[in-house]
Design a protein that fits this description.
alpha/beta, 7-stranded mixed sheet, 7 strands, globular, disordered C terminus
Length: 210
C-alpha cells in the first residue's frame, strides 16, 4: 500500500478548531519521548512531517495530519498526534496531565475510530498501564505499538514483547505490534491493524457508536 498524500493540516486547542471534514481519525498516544512523531513519520513514509524533538513535553496541541492511501477501501484519514503524558511534574493522574483538552477529544470526538498507544520496548511505566485502562474504560481497544525494538537483538525481542504484554495485561496475539521507526519494522503490521479498524463508509452521524 502506498501513501498518495500526507499533509499537516493544523494544530488545535479546542473542538472549534478541529477539521470539519467528516473523516475517520486515528489518535496516537504515549508518554513523552516514546517516539510518537517518529512512528507517524515512518508510517507515512515522510521525513519530518511530524516534528520530532528530544525535549519531553514539546507537543502541546492536537496535531492533525490528512492522509490518503492507495487502498481504495479506505477513505482519507486523519492522524492525530496527541501531547505526551508522564512529564508534567505536578500531575497526579493521566487525565490531569493531559488536561481537559485531551480528555474532551478522546471522550467526545465522533470521528475518532482508532487509538494507537505507543510504549517503549525497554520498559512499561505505571502511566502506560493507567492510560490503557482509561482508554479501555472509554470504550476503545487500543492498538499497542511497542517502539524502539531496534534497540534489542532479534533474539531478545519476543521475550521483551511478551513482558510488555504481561505488564499491560493484554494477550500477545491481540493488536500488539513491535515497531522500529529507524528500520520501518512493523510498518506493514501496523497498517494491517489499522485497516482492520477503519471503514471506507465511516459514519459520523450523531448516532455513531464506537
Amino acid at each position: 500500500m502506498k501513501i498518495l498524500s500526507a499533509d499537516f493540516v493544523k494544530s488545535c486547542l479546542k473542538p472549534a478548531h478541529y477539521p470539519r471534514e467528516h473523516l475517520p481519525e486515528v489518535a496516537f498516544v504515549g508518554r513523552s519521548n516514546v517516539g510518537k512523531s517518529s512512528a507517524i513519520n515512518s508510517l507515512l513514509n515522510r521525513k519530518g512531517i511530524a516534528k520530532v524533538s528530544t525535549t519531553p513535553g514539546k507537543t502541546q496541541t492536537l496535531n492533525f495530519f490528512r492522509v490518503l492511501t492507495s487502498d481504495k477501501t479506505l477513505s482519507p484519514i486523519y492522524f492525530v498526534d496527541l501531547p505526551g503524558y508522564g512529564y508534567a511534574k505536578a500531575a497526579k493522574s493521566v487525565r490531569e496531565q493531559w488536561g481537559p483538552m485531551i480528555e474532551r477529544y478522546l471522550k467526545d470526538r465522533a470521528q475518532l475510530c482508532a487509538v494507537v498507544q505507543l510504549v517503549d520496548v525497554r520498559g512499561v511505566e505505571a502511566h502506560d498501564v493507567t492510560t490503557l485502562e482509561w482508554l479501555t474504560h472509554l470504550g476503545y481497544r487500543p492498538i499497542v505499538v511497542v517502539t524502539k525494538i531496534d534497540k534489542l537483538s532479534r533474539g531478545r525481542r519476543r521475550q521483551a514483547l511478551l513482558q510488555v504484554c504481561q505488564t499491560l495485561g493484554v494477550e500477545y496475539d491481540e493488536a500488539v505490534v513491535g515497531y522500529s521507526s529507524k528500520t520501518n519494522e512493523g510498518r506493514q503490521e501496523l497498517w494491517s491493524a489499522l485497516r482492520g479498524t477503519l471503514k471506507s463508509d465511516f459514519d459520523v452521524s450523531p448516532v455513531f457508536q464506537r
